[in-house]
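Q: I'm building a small set of examples for a reading group on sequence design. Run inverse folding on the following structure and report the sequence directly after it, with nothing in between.
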């Protein structure tokens, strides 16, 4: 479990240092990255398809990335997901395109989507940038 927290900490620190309005998709039961981004003042909110997910100090709303409520994401400069199912990546790309934000994904193991996007090294963690603003 400690290994996962180190990964989430690295992701959170990377995002907090580079973005001002981030949204985490699929927070589930792993709020570590979001908490670091929130502490830096850069987290808008978190989403998950399951209702009832709560993490003290974080705004978590129910939303389905396959049919997203665009209003939740408007104004974000980053959408990110930590260990999403690979089937979630195409709708995440479409969402990032629609609101003109970056999209960063940390994949489970060696699972990637397509060509893996642009690789982003943030210490012990390799992120995949599937979309950059202005593309």
């Amino acid at each position: 479990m400690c290994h996962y927290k180190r990964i989430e900490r690295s992701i959170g620190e990377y995002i907090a240092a580079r973005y001002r309005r981030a949204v985490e998709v699929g927070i589930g039961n792993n709020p570590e990255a979001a908490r670091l981004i929130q502490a830096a003042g850069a987290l808008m909110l978190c989403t998950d398809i399951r209702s009832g997910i709560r993490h003290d100090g974080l705004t978590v709303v129910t939303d389905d990335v396959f049919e997203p409520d665009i209003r939740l994401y408007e104004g974000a400069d980053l959408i990110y997901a930590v260990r999403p199912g690979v089937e979630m990546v195409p709708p995440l790309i479409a969402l990032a395109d629609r609101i003109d934000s970056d999209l960063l994904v940390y994949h489970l193991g060696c699972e990637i989507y397509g060509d893996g996007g642009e690789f982003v090294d943030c210490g012990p963690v390799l992120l995949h940038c599937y979309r950059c603003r202005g593309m």
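The chain has one domain: 3-131.
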